[in-house]
Design goal:
The complex is a heterodimer of chains A (about 575) and B (about 425). Chain A is α+β, with helices and mostly antiparallel strands and about 575 residues long. The chains are: A alpha+beta (about 575), B alpha/beta (about 425).
Chain lengths: ~575, ~425
Amino acid sequence: MPEIFIDNKRYEFEEPGKVLQFMLDNGLDLPFFCYHPSLSIPANCRQCMVKAGMPVYDREKGTFEIDENGERVIRFFPKLMTACSLDLADGMVVLTHHTDELVKQAQADNLEFILINHPLDCPICDQAGECPLQILTYKYGPEGSRFEHKKVHKPKAIQLGPRVILDAERCINCTRCVRFTDEISKTHQLTIISRGDKNYPMTAHGQIFDDPYSLNTVDICPVGALTSADFRFKARVWEMNQTPSIDISNGKGCSTWMWTRDNLVMRVTPRFNEAVNDHWMPDAGRLAYRRFNENRISKPQLRLDDAEQVRTSWNNAQLTLLEELEKISAGDILVIGSAHASVEDNYALRTFFSNKGVSEFRFLPHIIPGSGDGYLISDDQAPNTNGVRALGFQETDEKTLIKLIKSTKPKMIVILDDDLLGRTSLTPDHLSGAWTIVFGTNHDETTRTANLVVPVTTAAEHAASYVNVDGRIQRTVPAKETLYTNRRLNLEMSMGRLDHYGTKFDNWVTDANRVDCISAWEFFIRLEHDGDAPKWESSRQIMEEIAGLFSTFRQVSYDRMDEENGIQLKLEQDTEVKPA
Amino acid sequence: MNNDWKSYQPLLVPAIPDLHDISVYEKNNGYQALKKILSDAKTWNPANVINEVKTANIRGRGGAGFNAGLKWSFMPEPDGKPRYLACNGDESEPGTFKDRKIFEFNPHQFIEGAIIAAYAMQIEVIYVYIRGEYRPFVQKLQRAIDQAYEKGYLGKNILKSKFSVEMYTHMGAGAYICGEESSLMESLEGKRGYPRVKPPFPAQRGLWGRPTTINNIETLANVPLVMNHGADWYLAIGPSTHPGPVLYGISGHVNRPGVYEYPAGMNIMTLINEVAGGVRGGKKLKALIPGGSSTPPLRADMLEGVTMDSDSLRQAGSMMGTAGMVVLDEDTDMVELIWRISYFYDHESCGQCTPCRDGTGWLEKTLRKIKDGNGEMRDLDLLLAICYRMEGRTICALADAAAWPVRYSIDRFRDEFEKKCKKTVYAVA
């Protein structure tokens, strides 16, 4: 197998590749700014310089030349090489800052160059704390600067587009953003303008940077030059907890990080997942974080007679539902699952009502044809259409549903987290003949019409699974607490930065920001007072149960999802429930 | 090379009236080399043409001095897909103004050379990249190209052979960096003129990812000479390590500045004193920039016996570059001069690589400080340090080009720099 010697240590490589990526894959450190594994390699920051050489091959003898110590004679390249663009070669010798003084000096020199025109405004810069320039300067940089002139001044706080703001002075011209719009989002909206130390990224004259993926440039910007118009000046990175999650704003289900502080989701950023979204996600998914914080339903709401909805206790909400159920027979109940809710919640809904004798379960896919782009934005607006389908919910369009309501005149309509009134032609009149219970996260037209509203958790608050448009099942991890979360007991809760380094709980939590809600499945186990009730203690257990019942979900478990970053399901398999 | 330069007859820009007209050029042995090759394709198959040019050792006239035939031989075998020849007439190095003479007075010799090069490398498309400021010369060249098309030297089935080639001109928009071969290609492709990382080299992946060779205009104008008279004849002109005619662009403090064509390897003092009429106003010579602003300046006392060819100039501590000689008399303020050169490179750095983008600006600012009389002695050390940190650490050679004049000037004219610096004494605590 071909071999390479990095800092006098031997490594083997199989695939051809570049030295920098190989070093990163092997956990070796080397500073870099412009390199990004998913973009082309411009080698323009010149930060990852190493000394590299090849053994001298004696063609006549057919062997490598050997010196008097029995070592291979190495012919080093005359100049330092950028590791990012240097191809791996059999027998290559690479010396980094650990073993070569010149490389160490070159890396420090390069940082000195970068910093001479970089405003050292870290205390007011949004990037501080997660800034490669800051981190690498501490690690590899010079002790000070010998630059005693006025720095180059460039425009600041330019609104490039609706979501991205540029501070040109901070730009170190790595061209990652330009390459992103050229190679990934392919809108070609950014370019570098001007020359030399006066240059910075800009749109064409009069154009706005409205790329649907524009915020990815903020993520990959190695300095604070590109900042998010939404997140700017809102929170410091070190104050936030970071929880792995998925994007539930569309069917693709990009892997994300959910950043929380004070029990509020502050921002959502993409998390690397080769199988789904690589390093990227659409802007819409990031800005969807507001639904976790704002307009939340806290505490159950009950409509008494035809009056306004009033807040009520959980106990009262449960008793009311049980009373209503006693009044009617199973045939009078219409249960509508939701592609916006998780596999577990839909399963719990289904289990509860099948135990009550209901046999038909329906759901309305939320698909807007033509709204997707074939990349990370899908036509499907819901994160779990395939999951609900796989659980045996019957796909129903709105016309059929309205017809169904008109013909069968159900006495009770159960709607799981889905704003049917808001997004379909269903009107309050259609529901007026029935007693309606809605499980909802945010106030919307549907919850306002309901007779009973049960507030349920969002993807930010529960551990639950969703099956994306490609049939990949992925799960969320609770990132913010509900009123009932006990961090010490709720083992699904993520461990935050502060949990690791300080207290066992997030000391930025403000009780006011806790929402009074529970997962839908928790509501159902509370309803059952008899011995037949499901004995679920966590959504993890529910998934185990589902995995045992549905062939589609066979082998699926939270542990496997965590380990493999989601599991690809075979959707064409039959989804019938096995006899228990 | 003694005094026979006086009897030398120009070959690249001969003194023939209206040579830019195709009929005059044809009457003066024009397009004979091309006819000779195409009429005897057996003897002159592409490989043989490359060999002949390689043997003639035409050193690239764009500054690097690389054997043109050897460069051509790097092109891979044709695979039926497009491959390109790009002719570099960007000529933006301060002190260099030779290619314009060819465009103006002998464009057909260049066109003929380019066609032969295309034939040798089996290329069907030639781009001529010319600096935008050369508008009148571009028009002259365009007329010459049109004439060549009319006469069937360009286009489909040239001179009824199977060989076809198209030639297009492309005007630059004023960036110095677009004279660098890889950013020239980026610019031709319609992109921002950023030099490319090598490898891959242009012969592997050039214009639009296809094999491409880039040659200087003057280099190509030498090709018909080689093909007409043979490599041995060509090798006999000037030193065999750097043979052939050279267009010396002499500017600065001389009595008769201009472009002069003589064999390579001319004695520098002969060029200054006899060809260009000596230093203006009878002043003493102070220094010479031998090949465009990026080549290290030589002090007058370093010029003894130095000739204008790569080897001799390297020994003397400089480079041949483009043979754009800038003559400086005793009144020249070296600090002011070097600052002005640094200002140029600061302005022209494309801004891609960190050491060049920020280093050129730092050099310029520090030199400006010294020039304005605010410099301190430690600034000289700083300048040298910046230069060492820029050299060889960037994608293209602009950082080197910016650093060399500064570094070598401080080396060679340190007293002048010191004179402008304050003798600050720092208290040592």
